[in-house]
Design goal:
HTH-type_TetR-like_transc_reg (chains A, B); homodimer; Tetracycline Repressor, domain 2; Arc Repressor Mutant, subunit A; TetR_SbtR-like_C (chains A, B); DNA-binding; HTH_TetR (chains A, B); 2 domains; elongated; mainly alpha; 188 residues; 9 helices; transcription (chains A, B); transcription regulation (chains A, B)
Chain lengths: 188, 188
DNA sequence: GCACTAAACGGAGACAGTCCCCGGTTATCT
DNA sequence: AGATAACCGGGGACTGTCTCCGTTTAGTGC
């Protein structure tokens, strides 16, 4: 990248602290947690926060990249353990659970699959789409998934399922049911 | 109700003005439109706004009750024109379109189907659920809808579909497709 | 018409959040 | 050690929320 010179030691330290504080705050108060408060928790001035992360989105993303990468990586594990169709469903289930449980991750995952969003092209957005792509394609080859589905559409629908489950109880206990309603359809 | 004495003329006038201003502002800027700005547009002090509508929710609801009642009423029209299964799908389609197009109505419709929400028990929440109930039951009797579906679940899933469509393009052009994916399922 | 009163008004102000700016500090290189 | 580029951090302008309370006004009885 353009990172010619490595980050200065203090900069790197503050960066890390902010990330930790942000993860906690976003998980606690959702995506609208106070940024100045995050800076305070990290023991850092708010200027420092805004320099490292120009927007709320940027911080949100940075705070949860690894968690999202983990979900993406989980796709391949599941692909080894289960037949394609089941692997996809199981993965979507875990994805939805993550979406709901970690309060501020929903906005992030949402904008990752939003058409025209700046986040759509960043690292974690693409690895989610690639992970979904592999599972979707495998399931389609196997014949357990409609041919006309794009991976990103599956992700969007999963986001919809997460939303619906959240409305139901806020804890994600309905995910499995709503996901199976989606896969099987609403007809008898 | 407890409305022993009719509202004073000036109160009623301001109430109406606020409602109009709110509808415009919420449609323009979404559910987070500035309340003080709404008061200003209505030519009214902010105290007046907060007296009439203690919470943002209350104003949001008041601003869109009639529109929501209209959607609920539309259910019965469709029930006359179409066979039950199609009527339900068509209604959900219109519902999703409304959810997306009028920015600010999404939050309202969402909390109407949220478990434990205060809005769940108010007038427009119940009439939505009743309208959905009639269509759902008819479709189930007809045999084109799974027996184990609760009306409120259908509303929640529709909300999910609206969310997914919004992610896709923000204009609702994908509603029909995502709705049919839901009804038919993701399998071939 | 007029005076009275309860209801309603409205805007000042306390508070919280966002974000930028810039004087001061510090890590790193020579 | 000294130079310098990078970085720090908090003060402050701005916007939005929501309450409090002195002032105004609609409605009522005479």
């Amino acid at each position: 990248m353009s990172q010619v010179r490595p980050m200065r030691a203090d900069a790197r330290r503050n960066y890390e602290r902010l990330l930790k504080a942000a993860a906690v705050a976003f998980a606690e108060h959702g995506e609208n947690a106070s940024l100045d408060d995050i800076a305070k928790r990290a023991g850092v001035g708010s200027g420092t926060l805004y320099r490292h992360f120009p927007t709320r989105q940027a911080l949100l993303e940075a705070a949860y990249v690894d968690r999202i990468e983990a979900i993406a990586a989980r796709a391949d594990e599941l692909a080894k353990e289960l037949p394609p169709g089941e692997a996809l469903v199981e993965w979507l289930n875990e994805l939805c659970a993550g979406t709901i449980q970690v309060r501020g991750m929903k906005a992030l995952l949402g904008s990752a699959v939003t058409d025209g969003s700046s986040l759509a092209v960043t690292a974690c957005g693409t690895s989610m789409k690639e992970a979904a792509g592999r599972l979707v394609e495998a399931a389609q080859r196997e014949g357990t998934l409609r041919e006309d589905l794009e991976p990103i559409e599956v992700l969007r629908l999963a986001h919809g399922v997460a939303t619906a489950s959240e409305l139901a109880d806020g804890r994600g206990e309905h995910i499995r049911r709503y996901l199976s309603l989606l896969t099987d359809g609403l007809r008898p």
